[in-house]
Design goal:
The chain is mainly α. The protein contains 16 helices and 2 strands. The chain is flat. The N terminus is likely disordered.
Amino acid sequence: MTTAAPQLDQDGEVERDAIDVGTTATAAEPGKRRVPWRFFTGRAAFYLFTLWAAITINFFLPRFMKGDAVSSYLARNRNISPEAADALRILLGIDSDKSVWQQYVEYWAMLLRGDLGISTLHGLRPVGEVLASALPWTLGLVGLATVISFAIGTIGGAIVGWKRGSRLDALIPITTFFNTIPYFWLGLIAIAIFSSTLKWFPSSHAYGKGQSPEWSLDFIGQVIAHGTLPALTIIIASLGGWMLGMRNMMLTVLDDDYITVAQAKGMPNKRVLWAYAARNAVLPQIQSFALSIGFIVGGTIVMEMVFSYPGVGKLLLDATNAKDYALMQGVFLVITLSVLVANILADVVYAYLDPRTRQTEA
């Protein structure tokens, strides 16, 4: 019994089936993978420059604003002597005897030591401690709600796009309708219905009044009860964008030749949907998700104001009103770092799912 001779391409190499090789979601040459050092080095240089630029802007921005943190602090505490006010300016690094360059160098030295300064709004507490007390609330609520919304919207959009022309298409205008409603209106409606009328959920705060944070079942239950309503409003408000974006990308991907070839070969529909179509259609969603994850650290300020939630967004708003520049700089720095880390992770995932990215840039 003889076997057919392998087909050679124009370069004299054995041709390989398009489905066996894979799409952009799979490796083109298994066994010959190389670490794309050029890709990662270029990305690292870009993000290091972005970090330096963001920290530099973070340093100069408060100095372009009118007033200073000490003047605002003296307005709230009128029994401070002039000598104490001068000492406070030195402590905050805004004394007039130093040049802007000296202040800039000292600011970098403080950052490298992990010192973010002190907050005049919170009784001269270190900014790091203030951020550490507010950051978990924002990550736990807004972060979890965003991840759930992204997962539901992406999976739902993939299914709706796959079954285009079916009754599932009605989900798109319904979800996008909630996406167009201003969040504060959606939050107030949710409070009016589920809190004031039905009494299902508390209307404000992260836990009951008079309680102090502790690791107990009662306290955890209170946190879940207080966080359910704002989390649901975040999910409902952002679900439409994820679902619409994924559905549109699915419609584009389904017209590609490799999907037609896969279906012609008799490949199961589930595998075509998730291993080929959805895996390629999700690529643009990843960058948007990275930005969303990064800005989670900034908190949803409107949400935290509507529900009186003690997160980083409300902390930033209070710091801006009180001209607490050290706290503002600390919040901006955390937001910057979170956005950069989220985009780095998105680049890694993107390069893994789409080998063309790392092959082109390497």
